[in-house]
Amino acid sequence: MAEVSRRRFLALAAAAPIGLRGGGGAHVPAIVVGSGFGGSVAALRLGQAGVDVLLLERGKLWPHDDHAQVFGSESSIDRRMLWFQLLANYPGLPAVPMIPYPGVMQVDVQPGITVLAASCVGGGSVVYTGVTLQPPRRYFERLYPSGLSYTELDRVYFPRVRAMLSAQTVPEEVYNSAPFTHTRVFDAQFAAAGLPVERTPSTFDWQVVRRELAGQVRPSAIVGESSFGNSNGAKHDLTRNYLPAALATGHVRLGALHEVTSIRREAGRYALAVTRRDEDGLTVEQLELTCDRLVLATGSINTTRLLVAARDSGALPGLNEHVGTNWGSNGDAFVFRPYTGPVGPSQAAPIVSTAMVDQGYPVPIRAESAAVSLPGQQPVLHQLSIAVDMDNRGVWRSGLGGQVGLNWQASQSDPALRSALALSERVGGTTGVGSAAATAHPVGGCPIGAATDLAGRVHGCPGLYVLDSSLIPGNVGGANPALTVSALAERAMDQIVQAGG
Ligand SMILES: Cc1cc2nc3c(=O)[nH]c(=O)nc-3n(C[C@H](O)[C@H](O)[C@H](O)COP(=O)(O)OP(=O)(O)OC[C@H]3O[C@@H](n4cnc5c(N)ncnc54)[C@H](O)[C@@H]3O)c2cc1C
Questions:
Q1: What is the pLDDT of residue 1?
Q2: Which branch of life, at top level (predicted)?
Q3: Closest approach atom of ligand 1 to CA 118
Q4: Taking a C-beta distance cutoff of 8 angstroms, is the pair 472, 444 a contact?
Q5: Does residue 178 surpass a pLDDT of 60?
Q6: Could you give the C-alpha distances from 15 to 163, 236, 245, 275, in angstroms and in order?
Q7: Which of 393, 418, 439 is the last residue of a domain?
Q8: How many degrees, rounded to 5, is the angle at CA 233 between CA 228 and CA 235?
Q9: Strand partners for 113
């Protein structure tokens, strides 16, 4: 696929979206909502098939700059980091007051768990840590419907997505650099405990990281920045691959700062209520858009919310009882353990090492070497743990005033947290401090093969598709979600385009 320059992408993205030129409302053949992993795949493949697509995204398109600080960060907290908050409520950060703003991260506080989700053009690819892992076959085949072939994903779709995202393991000299000292310590600890460590494919752009190490651009990845964006473009995020390719087809138009607030079925079409905002987050207008085909890719919590609300209000009465179910935290647990040896001048953000531990704990567990994202030497190691929890699931339901909320007990995270702490103690020889009160990996709510068919076609709603992390059956199966979400979307789009639907 021909590479599209950043300049051309920005010019294409700035063009007025199809159907929005006159304001008020419009009808378009197809709308994709959400420009993260699932939505970007859908937009590209529909555009290549010659379908005119409007891609609606609630967040901003953020620039990159080699030297300026475009995003906020853990060490300079500001409103650019959070989606409409009055007080910073990101776990672990001080509650700094701020003016509500369309920042890059939604922090959704639910009973029993706080959920993190991206809110910008490129979705999770802008704020994630770049880990591009596939789940092991042994867990995938226990979790997903039997009609989904792991062999096919392994041969066709995981490699296709890794290639599109330029996922590579860390180069040796970068791994051996000072900001990756904490990772080398993590690897040595696991090896000493007899647990094999592997290198993870990552979508960090190692050329940019090399330039950071050489002092040629403002340091970002090497000082622990990632979760609120890398100002110098240190990741191969979706604004560098799928999205420019989609816009370059000439069939896809991007509407940033357009939030879909409700969906209904009317006269054989889907009608969307949309709030358009300006760059400061002020509402410019309310639109109503209609389409024949609708792809929802707003991520696990937002797709689930929109659909549960639509079903329970009667706006999409065909949705079945599985919508809202099989939601999970992907077994996320964050453990910090003291370490008094050298950890480097700062801890680089890219996660490049991982160990999958199948036995010996309440649930199988994947540990990843994450950073303590603060400047300077920090005498602490951060182990991100992802548990293969087959049982604990939440349900999204409508409540008072039609608000959709999550039913999840804090105790449902216990197996993941206990496993993570015990593993950390085994490898580190010291008790760490852990929490599973938040998840960066929400999955499920519109489970594949139950709420939809195996290509994301929503049961009971012709022309409606879900192609995002809400398809995942409550747990990825021993991996971070992005690769699996994208691979399932690629597989679905092949089938949808072939079927001419
Ligand atoms: C800090 C952090 C680190 C992470 N690290 C990793 C990692 O290393 N590897 C990995 O695999 N995963 C990681 N993840 C998880 C990963 O980002 C998600 O699993 C993935 O992005 C989900 O893809 P998606 O397509 O479902 O949704 P997203 O990528 O979240 O995209 C959804 C998009 O829809 C938009 N949207 C939402 N609601 C609306 C609306 N109503 N109207 C219009 N637009 C809307 C959002 O703004 C967003 O852009 C991380 C997540 C976080 C928060």
A1: 65
A2: Bacteria
A3: 30
A4: yes
A5: yes
A6: 28, 23, 15, 19
A7: 439
A8: 80
A9: 110
User: Given 404, 422, 439, which residue is the final one in a domain?
Assistant: 439
Residue 304 belongs to some domain of the structure: yes
For residue 226, the enclosing domain spans 168-235+331-439
Ligand 1 neighbours (beta carbon < 6 A): 33-39, 56-59, 116-120, 123-124, 127-131, 227, 259-260, 297-300, 302, 351, 440-441, 468-469, 480-483, 485
Give 344 or 148, the one with higher predicted confidence. Answer: 148
Segment 433-475, tens digit of pLDDT: 999 999 999 999 999 999 999 999 999 999 999 999 999 999 9
CATH number for position 176: 3.30.410.10
CATH of the domain at 322: 3.50.50.60
Count of structural domains within the chain = 2
Q: Is residue 87 part of a domain?
A: no
Query: Does any domain span residue 93?
Result: no
8 A C-beta contact, residue 119 and residue 104: yes
Q: What is the mean pLDDT of the chain?
A: 95
Mean pLDDT of 167-186: 98
261 and 321 part of one domain: yes
Please say if the pLDDT value at position 2 is more than 80.
no
With tokens 């599985």, the residue in question is 322
What is the distance between the alpha carbons of residues 376 and 390, in angstroms, rounded to a whole number? 39
pLDDT at 360 over 90: yes
Structure tokens at 399: 């409540």
Nearest 5°: phi and psi at 297? -145, 50
| Active site positions, annotated | 368, 441
Q: Which residue do the tokens 């929400």 mark?
A: 442
For residues 467 and 411, membership in a common domain is answered with no
- Could you report the per-residue pLDDT of 287-305, keeping only the tens digit for each? 999 999 999 999 999 999 9
Mean pLDDT of 85-102: 96
- Do 311 and 432 have their domain in common? no
Question: Do 410 and 471 share a structural domain?
Answer: no
76 in any annotated domain: no
Please tell me whether residues 337 and 407 are part of one structural domain.
yes
Residues 6+ away with beta carbon under 8 Å from 274: 56, 258, 259, 260, 261, 286, 287, 288, 289
Please check whether residues 433 and 385 belong to one and the same domain.
yes
Among 57, 283, 304, name the best residue to mutate to test ligand 1's pocket (greatest count of ligand atoms within 8 A of Cβ): 57
Q: Of 334, 441, 439, 331, nearest to 384 (Cα)?
A: 334
